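Record filed below.
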Amino acid sequence: MTITVLDTAPAIRRIVTAPPAARPDLLRAMVEPARGLYRYFPGEVDVVAMHGMSFGFPLDRDEDQILDALGRLEEAGAWARIEKALEDAVRLQSGSLAGVNVPDITVLFVLGDPGDAYFRHTVGGFSGNGSVTGYISLTLWPTAENLARLEATAVHELNHNLRYAPGGVVWDPATVAVGEQIVSEGLADAFARQMYGPELGYTAMGVPHLNDDEVFAKVLEGLGITGMQNFVSWVHGDAAAQRFGGTPVGLPTGAGYAVGNRLVDAYLAETGQNAAQALYAPSDTIIRTALRLLQ
Protein backbone atom coordinates (compact mmCIF):
# COMPACT_ATOMS: atom_id res chain seq x y z
CA MET A 1 0.00 0.00 0.00
CA THR A 2 1.36 3.40 -1.03
CA ILE A 3 -0.20 6.79 -0.36
CA THR A 4 0.92 9.45 -2.82
CA VAL A 5 -0.11 13.02 -2.07
CA LEU A 6 0.68 14.78 -5.32
CA ASP A 7 2.93 17.80 -4.81
CA THR A 8 0.57 20.20 -6.52
CA ALA A 9 1.94 23.42 -4.98
CA PRO A 10 4.63 24.05 -7.65
CA ALA A 11 2.16 23.18 -10.40
CA ILE A 12 -0.49 25.57 -9.07
CA ARG A 13 2.11 28.35 -8.92
CA ARG A 14 3.23 27.62 -12.49
CA ILE A 15 -0.36 27.61 -13.72
CA VAL A 16 -1.46 30.93 -12.24
CA THR A 17 1.74 32.75 -13.24
CA ALA A 18 1.83 31.39 -16.80
CA PRO A 19 0.36 33.22 -19.80
CA PRO A 20 -3.40 32.55 -19.82
CA ALA A 21 -3.25 30.52 -23.04
CA ALA A 22 -0.81 28.07 -21.47
CA ARG A 23 -2.77 27.45 -18.28
CA PRO A 24 -5.21 24.73 -19.45
CA ASP A 25 -2.40 22.44 -20.64
CA LEU A 26 -0.46 23.00 -17.42
CA LEU A 27 -3.58 22.11 -15.45
CA ARG A 28 -4.03 18.93 -17.50
CA ALA A 29 -0.46 17.93 -16.68
CA MET A 30 -1.06 18.51 -12.98
CA VAL A 31 -4.24 16.45 -12.91
CA GLU A 32 -3.00 13.62 -15.17
CA PRO A 33 -1.66 11.39 -12.33
CA ALA A 34 -5.15 11.47 -10.79
CA ARG A 35 -7.11 10.97 -14.01
CA GLY A 36 -8.46 7.73 -12.55
CA LEU A 37 -10.83 9.86 -10.49
CA TYR A 38 -12.94 10.09 -13.63
CA ARG A 39 -12.75 6.47 -14.77
CA TYR A 40 -16.48 5.87 -14.33
CA PHE A 41 -17.47 8.84 -16.48
CA PRO A 42 -18.66 7.94 -19.99
CA GLY A 43 -16.40 8.93 -22.87
CA GLU A 44 -13.34 11.16 -22.77
CA VAL A 45 -13.32 13.48 -19.77
CA ASP A 46 -12.15 17.08 -20.10
CA VAL A 47 -10.19 17.44 -16.86
CA VAL A 48 -10.13 21.23 -17.21
CA ALA A 49 -13.92 21.33 -17.26
CA MET A 50 -14.10 18.89 -14.35
CA HIS A 51 -11.68 21.07 -12.38
CA GLY A 52 -14.03 24.01 -12.78
CA MET A 53 -17.16 22.01 -12.00
CA SER A 54 -15.59 20.77 -8.76
CA PHE A 55 -14.77 24.31 -7.53
CA GLY A 56 -11.11 24.28 -8.59
CA PHE A 57 -9.18 27.55 -8.73
CA PRO A 58 -9.94 29.65 -11.83
CA LEU A 59 -7.56 29.95 -14.75
CA ASP A 60 -8.49 33.48 -15.75
CA ARG A 61 -8.73 35.64 -12.60
CA ASP A 62 -7.88 36.09 -8.91
CA GLU A 63 -4.22 35.21 -9.40
CA ASP A 64 -3.02 37.26 -6.43
CA GLN A 65 -5.58 35.70 -4.09
CA ILE A 66 -4.63 32.22 -5.27
CA LEU A 67 -0.92 32.79 -4.79
CA ASP A 68 -1.52 34.22 -1.31
CA ALA A 69 -3.69 31.24 -0.38
CA LEU A 70 -1.10 28.85 -1.79
CA GLY A 71 1.50 30.43 0.44
CA ARG A 72 -0.75 29.89 3.48
CA LEU A 73 -1.12 26.21 2.62
CA GLU A 74 2.63 25.84 2.24
CA GLU A 75 3.26 27.59 5.55
CA ALA A 76 0.75 25.24 7.20
CA GLY A 77 2.56 22.18 5.81
CA ALA A 78 -0.72 21.03 4.29
CA TRP A 79 0.59 18.33 1.96
CA ALA A 80 2.70 16.61 4.62
CA ARG A 81 -0.13 16.84 7.13
CA ILE A 82 -2.54 15.14 4.73
CA GLU A 83 -0.07 12.33 4.06
CA LYS A 84 0.58 11.70 7.74
CA ALA A 85 -3.13 11.78 8.58
CA LEU A 86 -3.90 9.19 5.92
CA GLU A 87 -1.04 6.94 7.05
CA ASP A 88 -2.24 7.19 10.67
CA ALA A 89 -5.79 6.43 9.58
CA VAL A 90 -4.76 3.36 7.61
CA ARG A 91 -2.91 2.01 10.64
CA LEU A 92 -5.92 2.59 12.87
CA GLN A 93 -8.33 1.04 10.39
CA SER A 94 -6.13 -1.97 9.64
CA GLY A 95 -5.65 -2.63 13.34
CA SER A 96 -9.37 -2.40 14.07
CA LEU A 97 -10.84 -4.74 11.47
CA ALA A 98 -9.32 -7.83 9.91
CA GLY A 99 -9.11 -8.15 6.15
CA VAL A 100 -9.41 -4.48 5.20
CA ASN A 101 -8.36 -3.92 1.60
CA VAL A 102 -6.17 -0.82 1.47
CA PRO A 103 -5.37 0.05 -2.14
CA ASP A 104 -2.61 2.32 -3.38
CA ILE A 105 -4.07 5.81 -3.09
CA THR A 106 -3.29 8.96 -5.07
CA VAL A 107 -4.42 12.25 -3.51
CA LEU A 108 -5.12 15.34 -5.62
CA PHE A 109 -5.13 18.41 -3.34
CA VAL A 110 -5.90 21.76 -4.97
CA LEU A 111 -7.02 25.24 -4.09
CA GLY A 112 -10.63 26.14 -4.64
CA ASP A 113 -12.22 29.11 -6.37
CA PRO A 114 -12.21 32.24 -4.19
CA GLY A 115 -14.87 33.87 -6.37
CA ASP A 116 -17.43 31.06 -6.16
CA ALA A 117 -20.00 32.07 -3.55
CA TYR A 118 -21.48 28.58 -3.26
CA PHE A 119 -18.06 27.06 -2.63
CA ARG A 120 -16.74 29.77 -0.31
CA HIS A 121 -19.85 30.37 1.75
CA THR A 122 -22.54 27.71 1.28
CA VAL A 123 -20.21 24.73 1.74
CA GLY A 124 -17.54 26.56 3.71
CA GLY A 125 -14.70 26.43 1.20
CA PHE A 126 -14.20 22.68 1.10
CA SER A 127 -15.14 19.87 -1.25
CA GLY A 128 -13.87 16.29 -1.22
CA ASN A 129 -14.35 13.04 -3.08
CA GLY A 130 -13.19 9.67 -1.80
CA SER A 131 -15.68 7.43 -3.53
CA VAL A 132 -13.41 6.23 -6.37
CA THR A 133 -11.16 3.51 -4.99
CA GLY A 134 -7.50 4.45 -5.21
CA TYR A 135 -8.07 8.19 -5.49
CA ILE A 136 -8.97 11.06 -3.17
CA SER A 137 -9.56 14.64 -4.25
CA LEU A 138 -9.56 17.56 -1.83
CA THR A 139 -10.44 21.10 -2.91
CA LEU A 140 -10.00 23.72 -0.22
CA TRP A 141 -9.82 27.40 0.56
CA PRO A 142 -7.49 27.94 3.53
CA THR A 143 -9.70 29.54 6.14
CA ALA A 144 -8.61 29.05 9.74
CA GLU A 145 -11.38 26.46 10.23
CA ASN A 146 -10.46 24.51 7.12
CA LEU A 147 -6.78 24.45 8.03
CA ALA A 148 -7.65 23.19 11.50
CA ARG A 149 -9.85 20.45 10.02
CA LEU A 150 -7.41 19.43 7.28
CA GLU A 151 -6.52 16.02 8.73
CA ALA A 152 -10.13 15.23 9.60
CA THR A 153 -11.36 16.01 6.10
CA ALA A 154 -8.68 13.81 4.58
CA VAL A 155 -9.49 10.77 6.72
CA HIS A 156 -13.21 11.29 6.09
CA GLU A 157 -12.56 10.77 2.38
CA LEU A 158 -10.27 7.81 3.12
CA ASN A 159 -13.13 6.13 4.96
CA HIS A 160 -15.22 6.29 1.78
CA ASN A 161 -12.30 4.92 -0.24
CA LEU A 162 -11.91 1.89 2.01
CA ARG A 163 -15.62 1.18 2.40
CA TYR A 164 -16.03 0.84 -1.37
CA ALA A 165 -12.73 -0.89 -2.15
CA PRO A 166 -12.95 -4.42 -3.62
CA GLY A 167 -14.07 -6.80 -0.91
CA GLY A 168 -16.08 -4.09 0.83
CA VAL A 169 -19.48 -2.58 0.11
CA VAL A 170 -20.49 -2.71 -3.57
CA TRP A 171 -21.48 0.64 -5.08
CA ASP A 172 -23.66 0.40 -8.20
CA PRO A 173 -24.47 3.96 -9.37
CA ALA A 174 -27.77 2.86 -10.91
CA THR A 175 -29.18 0.96 -7.94
CA VAL A 176 -27.47 2.42 -4.86
CA ALA A 177 -29.92 4.00 -2.42
CA VAL A 178 -29.83 7.44 -0.83
CA GLY A 179 -29.63 5.63 2.51
CA GLU A 180 -26.22 4.21 1.59
CA GLN A 181 -24.67 7.60 1.02
CA ILE A 182 -26.36 9.05 4.10
CA VAL A 183 -24.87 6.24 6.18
CA SER A 184 -21.48 6.50 4.48
CA GLU A 185 -21.25 10.19 5.34
CA GLY A 186 -22.14 9.40 8.94
CA LEU A 187 -19.53 6.64 9.11
CA ALA A 188 -16.86 8.86 7.58
CA ASP A 189 -17.60 11.63 10.06
CA ALA A 190 -17.63 9.13 12.93
CA PHE A 191 -14.22 7.86 11.81
CA ALA A 192 -12.86 11.41 11.66
CA ARG A 193 -14.31 12.08 15.12
CA GLN A 194 -12.76 8.85 16.42
CA MET A 195 -9.37 10.19 15.36
CA TYR A 196 -9.70 13.92 15.98
CA GLY A 197 -12.67 14.45 18.26
CA PRO A 198 -16.01 16.21 17.74
CA GLU A 199 -14.57 19.70 17.38
CA LEU A 200 -12.79 18.77 14.17
CA GLY A 201 -14.40 15.54 13.00
CA TYR A 202 -17.86 16.67 11.94
CA THR A 203 -18.35 17.88 8.37
CA ALA A 204 -19.04 21.53 9.12
CA MET A 205 -22.06 22.03 6.89
CA GLY A 206 -24.01 19.32 8.68
CA VAL A 207 -23.43 20.60 12.22
CA PRO A 208 -26.28 23.17 12.34
CA HIS A 209 -28.82 20.39 11.69
CA LEU A 210 -27.55 17.61 13.96
CA ASN A 211 -30.48 17.95 16.36
CA ASP A 212 -33.13 19.16 13.93
CA ASP A 213 -35.96 16.63 14.11
CA GLU A 214 -37.77 18.09 11.09
CA VAL A 215 -34.68 17.68 8.92
CA PHE A 216 -34.23 14.16 10.29
CA ALA A 217 -37.81 13.18 9.44
CA LYS A 218 -37.59 14.69 5.96
CA VAL A 219 -34.36 12.90 5.07
CA LEU A 220 -35.82 9.59 6.25
CA GLU A 221 -38.45 9.95 3.50
CA GLY A 222 -35.74 9.70 0.86
CA LEU A 223 -33.60 6.85 2.19
CA GLY A 224 -35.03 4.27 -0.21
CA ILE A 225 -34.70 6.36 -3.36
CA THR A 226 -32.20 4.82 -5.76
CA GLY A 227 -29.81 6.23 -8.33
CA MET A 228 -26.88 8.57 -7.76
CA GLN A 229 -28.60 11.36 -9.64
CA ASN A 230 -30.87 11.85 -6.63
CA PHE A 231 -28.14 12.12 -4.02
CA VAL A 232 -27.34 15.80 -4.34
CA SER A 233 -30.88 16.75 -3.30
CA TRP A 234 -31.18 14.42 -0.31
CA VAL A 235 -27.61 14.49 0.99
CA HIS A 236 -26.34 17.99 0.20
CA GLY A 237 -29.61 19.95 0.16
CA ASP A 238 -31.56 22.37 -1.98
CA ALA A 239 -28.73 24.81 -2.72
CA ALA A 240 -26.65 21.96 -4.14
CA ALA A 241 -29.60 20.64 -6.12
CA GLN A 242 -30.07 24.05 -7.71
CA ARG A 243 -26.35 24.33 -8.43
CA PHE A 244 -26.03 20.90 -10.05
CA GLY A 245 -29.37 20.51 -11.81
CA GLY A 246 -31.17 18.37 -9.23
CA THR A 247 -34.67 18.76 -7.87
CA PRO A 248 -34.87 20.57 -4.52
CA VAL A 249 -36.82 18.58 -1.91
CA GLY A 250 -36.91 21.11 0.93
CA LEU A 251 -33.65 20.43 2.76
CA PRO A 252 -30.91 22.75 4.07
CA THR A 253 -27.27 22.40 3.10
CA GLY A 254 -25.63 19.39 4.73
CA ALA A 255 -28.87 17.76 5.86
CA GLY A 256 -27.78 14.27 4.87
CA TYR A 257 -24.54 14.58 6.83
CA ALA A 258 -26.43 15.53 9.98
CA VAL A 259 -28.84 12.64 9.63
CA GLY A 260 -26.06 10.21 8.78
CA ASN A 261 -24.27 11.13 11.97
CA ARG A 262 -27.40 10.57 14.07
CA LEU A 263 -28.07 7.19 12.50
CA VAL A 264 -24.48 5.99 12.78
CA ASP A 265 -24.03 7.23 16.34
CA ALA A 266 -27.17 5.38 17.43
CA TYR A 267 -25.94 2.21 15.72
CA LEU A 268 -22.49 2.44 17.28
CA ALA A 269 -23.97 3.05 20.73
CA GLU A 270 -26.26 0.04 20.39
CA THR A 271 -23.58 -2.34 19.09
CA GLY A 272 -20.66 -1.08 21.16
CA GLN A 273 -18.54 -0.69 18.05
CA ASN A 274 -16.41 2.24 16.98
CA ALA A 275 -16.43 3.68 13.48
CA ALA A 276 -13.36 1.75 12.31
CA GLN A 277 -14.95 -1.54 13.38
CA ALA A 278 -18.16 -0.64 11.52
CA LEU A 279 -16.44 0.16 8.20
CA TYR A 280 -18.32 -2.52 6.26
CA ALA A 281 -21.59 -2.50 8.22
CA PRO A 282 -24.50 -2.66 5.75
CA SER A 283 -26.40 0.59 5.54
CA ASP A 284 -29.79 -1.12 5.91
CA THR A 285 -28.59 -2.75 9.13
CA ILE A 286 -27.37 0.58 10.48
CA ILE A 287 -30.62 2.33 9.55
CA ARG A 288 -32.85 -0.40 10.95
CA THR A 289 -30.91 -0.61 14.23
CA ALA A 290 -30.76 3.16 14.64
CA LEU A 291 -34.42 3.76 13.94
CA ARG A 292 -35.45 1.27 16.61
CA LEU A 293 -33.72 3.58 19.08
CA LEU A 294 -34.51 6.97 17.59
CA GLN A 295 -38.17 6.70 16.64
